[in-house]
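To illustrate the input format used throughout this study, we show a single complete record. The first block contains the structure-token representation of the backbone; no residue identities are included at this stage. The design step must infer an amino acid for every position from geometry alone.
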């Protein structure tokens, strides 16, 4: 059972000689006290000693199960707690969007720019959002050059298109109906874009109860002061717990004095971390890293090995059938982890179908893709060991698909390995170049591991 923290105490690291009144962290901590946040006196908030920006560090040794802080739900910033919540509730239907973030973003637009906002001390920690360096803020040329092949440029393009669509079709009309609260000259598209990145990097979504998972959509995002100060690593040592009255951050393992306390944003690959949060974990820290093989790349590899028009026609028919089975799609990807294929059923069925003879495929179609094959079901988990035991045609198709995937990157694995091993050259890279390198290198290591398994 988690132990309870004492009443809030302003635990600020005083390593610098700045005046307390000029320190936004001191103002934020004072606000936390007024808002009813309870902080364990055995932790401190600081820029010094944290891996990035602000962080939480252990001022004393911590045991597993200790409550680091408790924040009442009244201190959360959401569409339900903002001062304009009544307007948002009234316009609920017109604020629906693909992302589901519009109500929170409108709340942020208002609270961030309102001088009398209850959350001003909270926003003072970020000031003008210059610390946000998501790829969406990179020039397109730099984004393409550094991230080609990773999947991030395509994800950013979708984000930017969606941001423009939401702002012009939902945000602007709402602001125009409430000119006493919003001003398009102040609440601009650029500010909206920055707030989208802010929500990406710092918001939380409360998990649904198991009985609600099939009936309800995901909970809307919300801002959780203090919780969003903790940085992320895959091997984290704290976790956020939800209850009806409050949220609590609790240690999941012992933490030594002076060590940073890390939350988890979930099982995130490096490309997802850089896309959503603006950073990547250096190799080999991210045990949740993945690499993608685009589904259409397997089709391309199968067509390349087809030696006749009839064989190419067979591949096209097989692909169409896989689409009907909803195993593949034009924009889908097979996801590879360090130890296994995460989209195991899709890849297993796709390899099997694309490697069938015309006769085998005809029989398979007649059964609508169903097979009474217990052994096949038992071997459906595509662990690394199972990949090495694939039939030769499947291995060859997968091997060729990996080679085609590696061609989509602008650089090869050896060049990046040499760069990572050369400390003098690495430190001369810009931060963006370093982050992109970690994303590319991790993905290529997974792809090269797969090559070795199936060659």
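Output of the design step:
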């Amino acid at each position: 059972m988690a132990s309870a923290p004492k009443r809030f105490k302003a635990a600020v690291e005083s390593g610098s000689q700045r005046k307390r009144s000029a320190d936004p962290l001191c103002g934020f901590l004072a606000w936390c006290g007024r808002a009813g946040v309870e902080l364990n006196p055995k932790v401190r908030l600081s820029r010094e000693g944290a891996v990035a920006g602000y962080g939480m560090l252990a001022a004393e040794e911590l045991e597993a199960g200790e409550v680091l802080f408790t924040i009442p739900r009244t201190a959360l910033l959401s569409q339900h707690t903002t001062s304009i919540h009544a307007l948002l509730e009234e316009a609920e239907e017109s604020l629906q969007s693909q992302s589901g973030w519009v109500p929170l973003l409108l709340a942020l637009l208002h609270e961030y720019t309102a001088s009398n906002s209850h959350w001003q001390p909270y926003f003072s920690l970020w000031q003008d959002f210059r610390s946000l360096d998501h790829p969406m803020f990179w020039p397109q040329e730099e984004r393409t050059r550094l991230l080609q092949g990773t999947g991030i440029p395509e994800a950013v393009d979708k984000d930017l298109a969606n941001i423009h669509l939401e702002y012009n079709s939902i945000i602007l009309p709402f602001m125009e109906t409430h000119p006493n609260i919003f001003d398009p000259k102040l609440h601009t598209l650029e500010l909206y874009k920055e707030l989208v990145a802010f929500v990406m990097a710092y918001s939380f979504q409360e998990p649904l109860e198991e009985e609600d998972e099939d009936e309800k959509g995901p909970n809307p995002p919300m801002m959780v002061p203090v919780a969003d100060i903790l940085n992320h690593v895959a091997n984290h040592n704290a976790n956020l717990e939800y209850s009806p009255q409050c949220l609590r951050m609790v240690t999941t393992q012992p933490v030594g004095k002076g060590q940073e306390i890390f939350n988890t944003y979930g099982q995130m690959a490096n490309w997802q971390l850089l896309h959503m949060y603006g950073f990547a974990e250096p190799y080999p820290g991210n045990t949740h890293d993945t690499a993608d093989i685009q589904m259409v790349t397997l089709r391309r590899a199968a067509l390349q090995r087809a030696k006749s028009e009839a064989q190419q026609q067979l591949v096209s028919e097989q692909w169409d059938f896989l689409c009907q089975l909803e195993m593949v799609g034009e924009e889908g990807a097979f996801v590879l982890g360090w130890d296994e294929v995460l989209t195991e059923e899709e890849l297993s069925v796709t390899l099997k179908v694309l490697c069938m003879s015309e006769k085998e495929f005809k029989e398979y179609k007649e059964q609508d893709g169903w097979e009474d094959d217990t052994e096949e079901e038992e071997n459906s988990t595509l662990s690394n060991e199972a990949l090495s035991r694939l039939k030769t045609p499947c291995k060859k198709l997968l091997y060729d698909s990996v080679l085609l995937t590696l061609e989509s990157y602008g650089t090869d694995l050896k060049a990046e390995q040499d760069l990572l091993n050369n400390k003098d050259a690495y430190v001369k890279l810009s931060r963006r170049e370093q982050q992109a390198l970690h994303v590319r290198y991790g993905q290529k290591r997974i792809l090269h591991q797969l090559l070795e398994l199936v060659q």
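Structural context for interpreting the output: The first strand starts at residue 38 and ends at 39. The first helix runs from residue 24 to 35.
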